[in-house]
Write a structure and sequence with these properties.
binds iron/sulfur cluster, TIM Barrel, binds pyridoxal-5'-phosphate, L-lysine 2,3-aminomutase activity, L-lysine 2,3-aminomutase, iron, three-stranded antiparallel sheet, alpha/beta, rSAM_sf
Length: 415
C-alpha cells in the first residue's frame, strides 16, 4: 500500500505534498469542524489511549497534530534514531548497511509507539532496519508478484478481469521494513510523474471492463488533497469505473493526515473504499481511532489488510485482539496476507500453517466480522489464493461430512 520525496531530504515537504493545482474551479468547501460531530461513547473511546510522545513530549499539540510537521520531523538518520531509543549494535549496523537499498523513515508519532528498550517490539520490528534484511535467499524474487510483467502501461497492474492496481506515488510516511514493493518504494527516481498518471488514467478510460480501481503506491495519501481530488474526479468521470479503493497505511503511521478537509473532499467521490494496513493492536491508538472515525463518519467503508509477520503478529491471540479493536474502529478485517517472496523480508516469513492456525482460532470462536480471509499471493502473478483450514472431512456424491469450529462432525446430505 499496501508502499514519497525523497526520503533522503531532511524534512522537506515533497513537491507531491505541496503540489497539485485545483483544476475543477470549485470553491474550496468550508472545513467541517469535527467538534460538531457526535462523539463516540465514552466506553468505546476509553479503550483507545493516545500514543506516547517520547522525546517529543515538549512539542505543542498544534504541531504534533499537524501532519506536515510529522512528515518534516521524520526519523530518517541513525543519529535521530539514537535519540528515540536504545539502538542495539545489530540495529546500528543494519541501519548503515540497508540505507542504500531501502531508506529508513519513521514519523515521530509512529516512532513514539516503539518500546525504546525492547528490540523485539512489534512497532520497532516493522520500522527499524535489522540485519535480517541483508539475508537474501535464493528463493527470493525481485518482483515477487510479477506486478511489472502484468503492466500494460507503467503505473497500472492489470491482472484480474475487472480491476486494476494504479500506482500514484512511491512515497510513504513510514517505510515498512516488510514492504513487498521495496524495489521501488522510497526510491525517488521511480516516482510516478504526472505524465505516467495521465497514461494510467487513459488506460483505465479505454478499458471498459475495469469497474474497480485500487489506488496504491507507495501511499496515495502522500499526495496533496488537491492532487487526489483531481485524480478521483478523473476516475469518477469514467462511466465504467464503479468503485475505487484508497490503499493507505496513513491511519497507522500518520493518522493526523486524515483531516476534516481531506474527508470532506472524499465525500464528493463516493462510494469510497479505504483499505488500510494495521498489523498489531499497539497501533490502535486514540489518534488512529479518530482517523478511522472521520473516514467512517464521512461514509467511507474501511477494510484492513494485515501482513502475517514473524514476531509481530504470528499469534492467534494477537490477531484476535487486533481484529476486535478494528471492529470498534469500524474497520472490517479483510485479508491476512502470507508474507511474500520479496527480497530482504525472509526474516518475517512464517510457514503457511501459521495463517491457517490463526483462521482456525478465529472462525466460530469469535464474530464472523472479525474473521478475515487468509490469502497467499502466488509468486509469478498467480494472484491471491485463499487458504483455509479444512472443514470438509469427506464428500461423496450428495453426502458431505463437515466438522465445526469445535471439532465435532456433522453430516449434510443434499436433498
Ligand atoms: C490485490 C490485488 C487486487 C485487488 O484484489 P481483491 O481480491 O479484489 O482485493 C487487484 N489487482 C492486483 C494486481 C492485486 O494484487
Ligand atoms: S512502505 Fe509500508 S505503507 Fe509504504 S507501500 Fe510499503 S507496506 Fe505500504
Amino acid at each position: 500500500m499496501a508502499n514519497l520525496p525523497v526520503m533522503g531530504d531532511v524534512g522537506g515537504v515533497t513537491e507531491e505534498l505541496a503540489g497539485g493545482g485545483r483544476t475543477n474551479g470549485e470553491a474550496k468547501a468550508p472545513a467541517v469542524r469535527h467538534e460538531d460531530a457526535p462523539r463516540p461513547v465514552a466506553n468505546v473511546l476509553s479503550r483507545f489511549k493516545p500514543g506516547p510522545r517520547s522525546i517529543w513530549a515538549g512539542v505543542p499539540d498544534a504541531l504534533w497534530n499537524d501532519w506536515h510537521w510529522q512528515q518534516r520531523e521524520r526519523v530518517i538518520r541513525l543519529e535521530q534514531l539514537e535519540r528515540v531509543l536504545r539502538v542495539t549494535p545489530e540495529e546500528r549496523e543494519a541501519a548503515v548497511k540497508t540505507e542504500a537499498e531501502f531508506h529508513m523513515g519513521i514519523t515521530p508519532y509512529y516512532a513514539a509507539l516503539m518500546d525504546p528498550e525492547d528490540p523485539t517490539c512489534p512497532i520497532r520490528l516493522q520500522s527499524v532496519p535489522t540485519m535480517g534484511e541483508l539475508n537474501i535467499l535464493a528463493s527470493d524474487l525481485e518482483d515477487p508478484l510479477a506486478e511489472e510483467r502484468d503492466m500494460p502501461v507503467p503505473g497500472i497492474t492489470h491482472r484480474y478481469p475487472d480491476r486494476v492496481l494504479f500506482y500514484t506515488t512511491h512515497n510513504c510516511p513510514v517505510y515498512c521494513r516488510h514492504c513487498t514493493r521495496k524495489r521501488k518504494v522510497s526510491d525517488p527516481t521511480s516516482a510516478a510523474a504526472k505524465r505516467q498518471i495521465e497514461e494510467s488514467l487513459a488506460y483505465i478510460a479505454q478499458h471498459t471492463e475495469i469497474r474497480d480501481v485500487v489506488i496504491s503506491g507507495g501511499d496515495p495519501l502522500s499526495l496533496s488533497d488537491d492532487r487526489l481530488d483531481h485524480i478521483l474526479g478523473r476516475l469518477r468521470a469514467i462511466p465504467h469505473v464503479e468503485i475505487f479503493r484508497l490503499g493507505t497505511r496513513n491511519l497507522v503511521t500518520l493518522p493526523q493526515r486524515v483531516t476534516d478537509d481531506f474527508v470532506y473532499m472524499l465525500r464528493r467521490h463516493h462510494p469510497v473504499y479505504v483499505n488500510t494496513h494495521f498489523n498489531h493492536p499497539k497501533e490502535c491508538t486514540a489518534e488512529a481511532f479518530e482517523a478511522a472515525r472521520r473516514l467512517a463518519d464521512a461514509g467511507c467503508v474501511i477494510g484492513n489488510q494485515m501482513v502475517l509477520l514473524k514476531g509481530v503478529n504470528d499469534d492467534p491471540a494477537v490477531v484476535k485482539e487486533l481484529n476486535h479493536k478494528l471492529l470498534l474502529m469500524r474497520i472490517r478485517p479483510y485479508y491476512i496476507y502470507q508474507c511474500d517472496l520479496a527480497r530482504g523480508i525472509s526474516h518475517f516469513r512464517t510457514p503457511v500453517e501459521a495463517g491457517i492456525r490463526i483462521i482456525e482460532a478465529l472462525r466460530g470462536h469469535t464474530s464472523g466480522l472479525a474473521v478475515p480471509q487468509f490469502v497467499v499471493d502466488a509468486p509469478n502473478g498467480g494472484g491471491k489464493i485463499p487458504v483455509n483450514p479444512e472443514y470438509v472431512v469427506s464428500h461423496e456424491g450428495k453426502r458431505w461430512v463437515l466438522r465445526n469450529f469445535a471439532g465435532k462432525q456433522f453430516e449434510y446430505v443434499e436433498p
